[in-house]
Amino acid sequence: MARPPLLGLTGGIGAGKSAALSAFAALGAATLSSDELVHRLYRRRAVREIVVARFGDEVAGEDGVDRAALATAAFADPEGMTFLEELIHPLIGPEREAWIAEMAAAEPPPPALVCEVPLLFEAGVADAFDAVLVVTASEDVRRARVAARGQDFDARAARQLTEQEKTERADDVYVNDGSLDDIGMWAEEMLSRWGRPG
């Protein structure tokens, strides 16, 4: 049996990708968060040692790497984020493929496999998905969400394509300026359009 449809979920910083991923999960889709995947990779001893050697003991955490301290150190270093991307990105692909194989073998199969990938277009992996869904929001809304998390919007947004570039390349787009109920209805529509009927 063919695997369930594979959907890539992406969008700019503060757009609401995590909320969208949760909405898909609530509807029965199998979901994979790149953020959680990266967190697992940082718990690997070899990865942790490389990161600590590059950025110092202050980024070491009880459970691998202190993500907040690492973000501060990496953004303060002109080459810091490039170093991390070159370290982590090659490790993500095999992990994602293993997850896809596991979920595709599930009985009963989920209606779709939804992978949240913040740098999906930037990493050049769009063609790996049957469809790419972009969650976006107005800049004021995204800035407010990012500020509420204590993060630097401009530093993070500078490493991503513009919202216009993402939406132009997407198969479907959701403007997330509304409520969680609204995003749930959009996720349901996307599963109806792109997923496998139950």
Helices and strands, with pairings:
Elements: E1 6-10, H1 17-26, E2 30-33, H2 34-42, H3 45-55, E3 60-61, E4 64-65, H4 67-76, H5 80-104, E5 113-116, E6 131-136, H6 139-148, H7 153-157, H8 163-169, E7 172-175, H9 180-194
Parallel strand pairs: 1-5, 1-6, 2-5, 6-7
Antiparallel strand pairs: 3-4
Fold and architecture overview:
It is a single chain. The protein is of the alpha/beta class and 198 residues long. The chain has a single domain, classed as P-loop containing nucleotide triphosphate hydrolases (Rossmann fold). Helices cover 52% and strands 14% of the residues. It has helices at 17-26, 34-42, 45-55, 67-76, 80-104, 139-148, 153-157, 163-169, 180-194; strands spanning 6-10, 30-33, 60-61, 64-65, 113-116, 131-136, 172-175. A hairpin with a 2-residue loop joins strand 3 (60-61) and strand 4. Helix 2 (34-42) packs across helix 5 and helix 4 packs across helix 5 (80-104). The relative contact order is 0.24.
